[in-house]
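Annotated sample (chain length 355).
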Amino acid sequence: MKKKINTILIILFAFLIVSCANSGNNSSNYSSTIIVTDMIGEKLEIKKNPSKVACVSRTTYDLLIAFGLGDKIDGAYKSIYNNVWVETIYPKSVNEYQYNYEEGYETFISRNVDLVFAPEKYIADGLKDHGIKALNVSLYGNPTFDEYVYFFADLVTQIWDYDYVKTKANVWKNRVKEAIDTVIADTKKEVKEKSLFYVRGDKNKGIGYTDQAKAFTEYAYRIMGFDFVGARLDTNTPSSEEIVAENPDIFVIGGIYQNVLINTLETTEPYTKLNAVKNHEIYTIPVGLTMFEQLSAMTPIFFYDQANKLFPNSCSYDVKSMTKSTIKEYFGTELSDQQIEYMFEGKDSKGKYLA
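Output written by the structure step:
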C-alpha cells in the first residue's frame, strides 16, 4: 500500500511540474485560439502563438524580427529581399521563402502557413475564401494613420502571448513616442510652411511614385509641420506636369533607388526648374533592413534623422550611433561605423550604390 501511495504522489508531483511549466512566461494560456481584429476592422479567429507566418504586408517583416519572432517567419514579400542590406543585417533571411504580392493560395497551403499578414483587403479575402487565415495590415490608415502607429505592435502582443514579446513591443512603442515628442518639442519654434514631396524609391518608378493621404509618411511629415503634397493628389503616380504644378519646396527620397532618382531630379527637365532642385532642398532617407520610412524597428530613428536634415538649426541627434546600437539589439548584427555611413549614403555594406 505504501508503495502504491508513493507512486501516486510521484505522478501528482510530475503533473504539477508540467502544469507550472505550461503557465510560465513563454507559454500560451489554455485556449489554443484567439479572436483578433485586423487593420480594417475585420475579426478573425486564429491559432494562438502561430509558428509559421507569411509577411506579405511589407510593414510587418522587420517588426516581427525586432520583437523576437524571427523564427516564426516562413517568408516575406519578395521585393523586400531586393535590398542587399536584408541579408547583411539579418543573415537568416536567406532561408526564407519569397512571396509574390498576389501569391496563389496553393503556395500557403503547401507550405503549411498558419497565418498571412496581407497588405490589402482583396488579398486577405481571397485567401480566407480558401480556408487560409489572413489578417489585413495595410500601409494606410482610416481615416488617417494617426490611430495606427502602434496598431501592429499591439496586434502582435495579442497573437503571441509571450512576455518577452510584450516587453520588446512596449519598448519600441515608448521609443517611437519619445522620438515624436522630442522632435515636435525641439522644432516648435521653426517656421513650418514648406510643401514636401516624398518619392518612394523602393521601386524604380520615377519621380512620380509617392504616398497619399492616410499613409504613414503623410502622418509623419504632417506632424513635423510640412504640407505633404501627396495628400491632395488623386493618385500615387502623378505625372511630371502635376508635380511641376505643385512646385514643392522640398523633395525627400527613400529606398534603394534614391541616388538614381536624385540624379533624375537634378539633370532632367522639367524637374530642374523646380524650387526644391534650384535651392538644393533634396534629402534622402536611410535604407536599413527595410526602408526607414516604413513603419519598422527604425521608426524612432526615422523621425530623428529627418528632423536633422529638415531642421538643421534645431536638431542634431546622433542617429548613426542610434542605428548601430538598434541593429545590434534587434537583429544581432554588429555593423562597423563605415557600414553605417554607407547605409546613410544609399550604398551597400561595401560602399557600392544600391542601384
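Annotation: The CA atoms of residues 220 and 303 lie 8 Å apart.
Annotation: Residues 33-168 form a domain with the Rossmann fold fold (CATH 3.40.50.1980).
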